[in-house]
Amino acid sequence: MKLGWIFLSRCSFLLSFSSATHASVSDWQTSVSSQPSLLHHYSFDGSTDAERTSDLRGTADLTLRVFGSGRPDQLQWGVAGFDSSSEAVQTYRGPGTDNAEGAYLRTESITLGNAISFELLFSPSEPEITGGQWNLGYILSTRSGNDRGYFLTQGGPLPSSGRRIKSTIGNSHSDANTTTLLESFTPGHWYYVAGSYITRGGSTTWTNYVADLTMGQTNLTAVGPFTNSGGTYPLVPTPLGIGGRWDAQEAFSGLFDEVAFYDQDLPSSVFQRHLSLLVGAQINLELKADDDDLVLSWRSQSGKRYNIRSSTDLSGDPATWPVFDNLENLTATPDKNTLTIDQPVDAQRYFVVEEFQPPPVVYYISGFEEGSEGWTSLINDQQGATTWELGTPSASTGPLTGANDSEYAWSTNLGDYGPNSNISLRSPIIDLSSATDAELSFKAYRDADGFGDTAAVRFLRASNLLLLGDEVPIDMDVFDSGWTTIRMPLPPDSAGTGIIIEWNFISDDTLDAFSGLSLDDVTVSD
Q1: 25-278: what fold?
Q2: Rounded distance, CA 89 to CA 92, Å?
Q3: C-alpha–C-alpha distance, residues 526 and 520, integer Å
Q4: Which of 130-144, 211-225, 274-288 has the lowest mean pLDDT?
C-alpha cells in the first residue's frame, strides 16, 4: 500500500503538497497468497507454536530442531519482524565447531519440481562464521544424495570464510556450482532475497535478486543467470531446513520474517512488485483549484486500484482515514489519474490517495474435489484405447494423487495410456464478459514416452467452438517428478465473451507403460 497526501487550506487556498509512503509485510503476504503457483509459505506469525510453524499453503509444517548442546529456548519466537505488521523467528548457532550447538526449523518433506522460485526476508546476526571446519551456516537448504539445494548459505563453498551470502546447487559443493549473492552484508539489516531455478539436461540455471530493505533499496539487484557444472537440487521428497541444514547441523544465526516457495520460475517483475510492497515508492498527489472544483491527480500504474481518503485533522494513521465521498476502488488510467471534485466547505482538509494491489479476479477455479460439473471428454480416434478420466491416478509411473496430495485429477486413463490415441478434455463455459485480459494456470504432471506423444491447449469460442488464437503446445518431452504449474495468457479475442478451454493429447503407435498427462487445479484469473 502506498499513500500520497496533500493539505488544503480553504482560508488562503495555498496548496502545499508532499508525499509519504507506506508499505508492509502484510501487503506482501496478501500478494504472495494470491499467486497460483505458491507451494509453501511460512510467516512465523501467530500466538501459538502451531500457528507459527504452520505451512500457510501446503502441508509441510515446521518443527524445532536442536543439535549438539543446543536448547529449545535458543530459538526465539515473536521477535520483531521487518515491520510491525508481522513477527519473526530467531534461529541460533553457538560458538565453537560447526556442530557445537544450534536451534532452527525443519520440515520432514517437501517436493520441488523442475522449475521453482523462492522468496525470503532475513536478517543475519553475525558478520562472520568462525571456529569450525567448514565455517558455513545454512539459511535455506535441502539435499538428497548428491543433489544439493543450498539455496542460501552464509559462507561456502568449502573451505569457507563465512562472510558472504551464496547459493550452491548440484552434485558438488564447489565454485563451479556456486554463485555469490552478497559479497558483504551488514548484521542487523533486513534483506530481501529471491531466486528462480530451472533444471534442464542435468544442470540447473538460476537467477537471484537481492535488496537491502533496511537501506530502503527500491530496485532489485539481479545476480545471474548462472548455470552450474552439473546436478540439480533434489527433485524427490526431501527435508527443508530454515536456519540450518536439512539434517540437524551447521545452523545460522539470524532472523526470518517470511519464506515462500513456488513451483514456477517466476519472472523478475513479480519479485520487483513484491519488493515495492515491502519498501514502497513515492507517490505524489497534486491538487489545484478550478473555480468551484478541485482537481486531484497522481501517477498511476496499470493493475493498481486507488482510494481517496480524507480528514479535517492529522489525527490517526492516514491509512485509516475515511474514504472521501465514496471515491474508492478507482481503476488506474496510466500514466496519470485525474479526478475533479467539488471544493469542500471545511476550513481545512487533508487528502491522501491510497494505492493498493487488488486481489485477482477469478473467473473460474476448480480442484475437482467436488466433482467435474460441465466438463466433457471426447475420443477423436478409432481405437478408443485412451480417454480422459477423473479420479485418483494409478498408472505404472507418474502421480499417485492429485496436486497437493488431493484425491482427484484428470488423467489420460487412470492407468497407463494406450497407443494411437487422440483425446480432448473440455472445460465448462467460462464467462469472460467482464474481462479485459486473463490468464490460465493449471497443474500438470507429464509422464509420456518423451518423443512421440504431444499435447496442446486450445481456446474455443463457446458460441461456435471456433479456435481463438493459436493452440498452445504443452512440452511433452519433459518428465515431471512432481506436479508443475503451467501458466499462459488467454488470446485477446477471448476477452468479453464466453470460452471453452480444451486440452488435447495425442499418443503415437507405441505401447508405453506411462501415465501420460494429468491435470489438476485449473484457474482462470486476471
Answers
A1: Jelly Rolls (2.60.120)
A2: 10
A3: 19
A4: 274-288
Q: Write down the pLDDT at residue 287.
A: 84
Mean pLDDT of 450-454: 90
Q: What is the DSSP string of 75-116?
A: SEEEEE-SSTT-EEEEEEE-SSSTTSEEEEEEEEEE---SEE
Query: Of 132, 136, 129, whose CA–CA distance to 157 is shortest?
Result: 136
d(CA 126, CA 393): 49
Instruction: Give percent of the chain with pLDDT exceeding 90.
Output: 69
φ, ψ at 145 (rounded to 5°): 60, -125
pLDDT exceeds cutoff 50 at 73:
yes
CA dist list (Å): 174 to 79, 133, 135, 160, 377? 35, 16, 15, 11, 50
For residue 281, how many other CB atoms are within 10 A of its CB?
14
- Please say if the pLDDT value at position 276 is more than 90: no
**Can you tell me the distance from the alpha carbon of 142 to that of 245, in angstroms, rounded to the nearest whole number?**
7
CA distances from 57 to 29, 37, 224, 261, 392 (A): 12, 10, 29, 10, 22
Q: What are the backbone angles phi and psi of residue 49, rounded to the nearest 5°?
A: -60, -35
Distance CA 410, CA 521 (A): 10
CATH class of 362-525: mainly beta
| CB proximity list for 50: less than 8 A, separation 6 or greater | none
- Which residue spans of the chain are classified as CATH 2.60.120.200? 25-278, 362-525
**Residues whose CB is less than 8 angstroms from the CB of residue 414 and which lie 6 or more positions away in sequence, other chains included:** 389, 391, 392, 393, 394, 395
pLDDT band (50, 70, 90) for residue 2: low
Residue 12 has pLDDT above 70, yes or no: no
- Asked if residue 421 lies in contact with residue 504, where contact means CB atoms within 8 angstroms, the answer is no
How far from chain centre, in Å, is Cα 351? 34
Lowest mean pLDDT of 21-35, 254-268, 319-333, 412-426, name the range. 21-35
| pLDDT score, position 282 | 60
User: In this predicted model, what pLDDT tens digit does every residue of 219-270 receive, in sequence order?
Assistant: 899 999 999 999 999 999 999 999 999 998 899 999 999 999 999 999 998 9
Distance in angstroms (rounded) separating the CA atoms of residues 515 and 508:
14
The neighbour count for residue 102, using CB atoms within 10 Å, is 30
**For 376, what's the count of Cα atoms within 13 Å in the CB-facing half-sphere?**
9
- The CATH-assigned architecture of domain 2-22+281-356 is Sandwich (2.60)
Instruction: Look up cell 520441488; give the residue.
Output: 112
Q: 3-state SS of the chain: helix, strand, coil percent to 5?
A: 10, 45, 50
Q: Where in the chain do CATH 2.60.40 domains reside?
A: 2-22+281-356
pLDDT at position 348: 85
